[in-house]
Design brief:
CATH superfamily: Phosphopantoate/pantothenate synthetase
Oligomer: single chain
Largest sheet: 6 strands, parallel
Shape: globular
Low-confidence stretches: none
Distance between the termini: 25 Å
Number of domains: 1
Bound molecules: adenosine-5'-triphosphate, magnesium ion
CATH topology: Rossmann fold
Order of helices and strands: HHHEHHEHEEEEHEHEHHH
C-alpha cells in the first residue's frame, strides 16, 4: 500500500525524475542535465507541482505568438527529448514550427540519440544536424553559439525549453522573440525571455498544444492583442507571489 495516492502530484514528479534518469542511461541527457532537473524539481515543489494561473496566462500568449510567427523554431535539448519527445513533435506540427537539436553541452553521440528519439516519435525534418548549414550567434562563447542557418539563425520566434541564460540573452540580442518553459521564475532565462511559462514542461506542453489548436481559428488581430497585452515581468512577479503564498500556507499547516 503506497503512503500517498497514485494521483498525488509527488508521485507524478517521481515519474518525471525516472524518465530523466532513463534518458540519461539511454545517452540523451548530459550529467549537467540531471542537475538542471534537480533545480527544476525544487522550484516545482515550491510551486505546488501544478500549473498555476500565471503559467496558463503565459501559455495563451505563447500560443498566440507561435501562430503569429513567420518562422518559428523549437530548440530541443537532451532533457526535453527525454521528458516529452512525442509532445514536442506534436507542438511543432500544430504550430508549423521547425525542430532544431541544439545542445548546451555539444556531443555528437548524444545528438544522434536525440535525433533518433525525435524520429521515433514522428519527426520528419530535424535541423541542427548538418555542419554545412551551421553558423554562429554572436555574443556567447564558441561551443554554445552554433545554430542552424536554416533554423534558429533565420527564425523570428524561438521556443527554448529549459535553456541557459547566456544563450537566451544571445538569442534576444539577435532579435529573436523567445518563448521558454522554466520552473525557476528568477533564472536569467526566465527574466530575459519575452514569454516565460513557469511550469514543468511535461505539464505545460500539452496545454500549449491545445491552446495553439484553439487559437488557430482566431484572426491575426486577436492574436496580436493577446501578445501585446501580455507583460512577462508582471507575470513572473505573479509566479513569485504564487510560491510565496504556497510557502505561507504550508508553513501554517506544518
Ligand atoms: P540561467 O542560466 O537561466 O540563469 P540556471 O543556470 O540556473 O539558469 P540552467 O541549467 O542553465 O539553469 O537551465 C535549466 C533551467 O531549466 C533551470 O532554471 C531549471 O529550473 C529549469 N528546469 C529543469 N527541469 C525543468 C522542467 N522539467 N520543466 C521546466 N523547467 C525545468
Ligand atoms: Mg545556466
Amino acid at each position: 500500500m503506497p503512503l500517498i495516492p497514485k494521483s498525488h502530484p509527488r508521485v507524478k514528479s517521481l515519474l518525471i525524475r525516472e524518465k530523466l534518469v532513463d534518458g540519461f542511461e539511454r545517452g540523451l541527457v548530459a550529467k549537467e542535465g540531471l542537475l538542471a532537473q534537480g533545480r527544476g524539481e525544487a522550484f516545482d515543489y515550491l510551486l505546488g507541482e501544478k500549473t498555476g494561473k500565471s503559467a496558463k496566462h503565459a501559455i495563451k500568449a505563447a500560443a498566440a505568438q507561435l501562430l503569429l510567427a513567420k518562422m518559428p523554431v523549437i530548440s530541443v535539448n537532451g532533457n526535453v527529448a527525454a521528458l516529452c519527445p512525442k509532445q514536442i513533435v506534436k507542438l511543432s506540427k500544430q504550430t508549423k514550427a521547425k525542430l532544431e537539436v541544439n545542445l548546451f553541452y555539444a556531443n555528437q553521440k548524444r545528438k544522434n540519440a536525440i535525433i533518433k528519439t525525435l524520429k521515433n516519435n514522428g519527426a520528419k525534418e530535424i535541423l541542427g544536424t548538418n555542419y554545412k548549414t551551421s553558423t554562429k550567434l554572436s555574443g556567447i562563447d564558441s561551443a554554445r553559439r552554433i545554430v542552424d542557418r536554416n533554423g534558429i539563425f533565420a527564425a523570428d520566434v524561438v521556443v527554448v525549453p529549459l535553456e541557459d541564460g547566456d544563450r537566451t540573452i544571445a538569442l534576444r540580442k539577435a532579435g529573436k522573440k523567445v518563448i521558454t518553459f522554466d520552473l525557476n521564475p528568477l533564472s536569467r532565462t526566465s527574466q530575459t525571455a519575452n514569454i516565460t511559462i513557469v511550469d514543468n514542461v511535461t505539464r505545460a506542453i500539452d496545454l500549449l498544444i491545445n491552446e495553439s489548436k484553439k487559437l488557430s481559428k482566431k484572426n491575426i488581430k486577436v492574436l496580436q492583442k493577446i501578445v501585446d497585452e501580455f507583460d512577462n515581468k508582471k507575470n513572473l512577479a505573479e509566479n513569485v507571489i504564487q510560491i510565496k503564498n504556497n510557502l505561507t500556507r504550508r508553513a501554517r499547516i506544518a
